[in-house]
Design goal:
The complex is a heterodimer.
Chain A lengths: L8 H11 L16 E6 L2 E8 L2 E9 L8 H19 L17 H33 L3 E5 L2 E9 L5 E8 L4 H10 L9 E3 L11 E8 L1 H11 L1
Antiparallel strand pairs in A: 1-2, 2-3, 4-5, 5-6, 6-8, 7-8
Helix pairs in contact in A: 3-5
Chain B lengths: L16 H14 L3 H29 L5 H9 L3 H6 L8
Helix pairs in contact in B: 1-2
Classes of the chains: A alpha+beta, B mainly alpha.
Chain lengths: 229, 93
């Protein structure tokens, strides 16, 4: 399950609080080797580490007033013990009183975060592309949407008795990998038959505009329309 | 009575002194006007670059096998093996 879809009050609170750049942040003072912030809701307590505007909830537990089991007390004790172990194994030793590096996201966490962001982007692209193709199949006009600052337009010209032509217009700075995924999502097109154009018959191509065209299998077009009905 | 047709409007393009020297030499070498050389060269260059762009896109598209995992991996800038190592992508999603 994607982490941002897990329904937990602490995750929801951390996501909401750290999305707001103006919201106050309270540092966990016992942790002095990294800057970790507190996040609290109900009895839940957490430690948040912010990297490149991404807030990672790196540890969580519950409040237990006056008890060594209290989340922040336990975190301080664990980090102090981790510092002692670190200093036995490493030279030079840490000058801080805590070591919390073991809590921070690693390569796998980074991969997982990127994979989840990509999965969300793919889901949105797939639905958008199919919707635009379907709308254009119905009226022959170009249909367009804005996607994260770039415009994506699709026009399908289904000429009865002839070939079905599809043109993709993208305006804006879009990574080539995203363009490839968009083209791959157009149904009924040969992947090696996409053509790019640097001019339009009736006008010049705009700055940061790219146009790709292909022939679409009419059976795939009909199937797309049938699926919607 | 005849009707005089207007010649299409010409547009000046600024080039560097070195570029102008190259265009002048090239036009003499190929026995053509500077205007015709520039227009032919630009069309030739754009066609060549278009081929490059299409070849690059074909290469990217060849990495996509129709699976959701291949699309997600490409969007994430990782291999499908890396994607698989962190849970993969649900094909039915």
């Amino acid at each position: 399950m994607p982490l941002d879809e897990i329904a937990h009050p602490l995750l929801a609170k951390a996501a909401e609080h750290f999305a707001d750049g103006q919201a106050g942040r309270e540092r966990i003072r016992a942790i002095d080797d990294q800057v970790l912030f507190k996040v609290k809701i109900q009895r839940w307590r957490g430690a948040v580490w912010v990297d490149d505007d991404i807030a990672w909830l790196v540890a969580a537990g519950q409040r237990e007033d006056g008890s060594p089991e209290d989340f922040y007390a336990a975190l301080a004790a664990r980090s102090s013990a981790a510092r002692a172990r670190y200093n036995v194994e490493h030279t030079p030793p840490l000058a801080t009183s805590a070591y919390s590096g073991y809590l921070l996201p690693g390569h796998e966490d980074d991969l997982r975060w990127r994979a989840e962001a990509a999965a969300r982007a793919e889901r949105q692209l797939r639905a958008t592309v199919r919707d635009l193709v379907r709308q254009s199949l119905l009226d022959g006009h170009e249909h367009a949407v804005m996607l994260e600052g770039a415009a994506l337009g699709i026009q399908v010209l289904a000429d009865q008795g002839h070939e079905t032509y599809v043109a993709i217009r993208i305006i804006g700075s879009v990574p080539r990998a995203h363009v490839a995924v968009i083209l791959s999502l157009i149904p009924g097109c040969q992947p090696d038959a996409w053509m790019s154009d640097y001019a339009m018959p009736e006008r010049a191509v705009a700055p940061e505009e790219q146009i790709w065209s292909n022939i679409m299998d009419p059976a795939a077009a009909a199937k797309l329309l049938d699926e919607h009905q | 009575m005849t009707t005089a047709e207007h010649a299409p409007r010409q547009v000046a393009v600024k080039v560097s002194p070195d570029g102008d020297k190259l265009i002048t030499s090239g036009a003499h070498y190929l026995h053509m006007s500077k205007k015709d050389l520039v227009e032919a060269a630009v069309a030739f260059y754009l066609d060549a670059r278009r081929e490059d762009m299409q070849a690059g896109m074909r290469e990217l598209l060849s990495d996509l096998d129709g699976s959701r995992a291949s699309r997600v991996a490409m969007l994430a800038g990782m291999t499908t093996a890396e994607l698989e190592s962190v849970g993969g992508a649900d094909e039915d999603d």
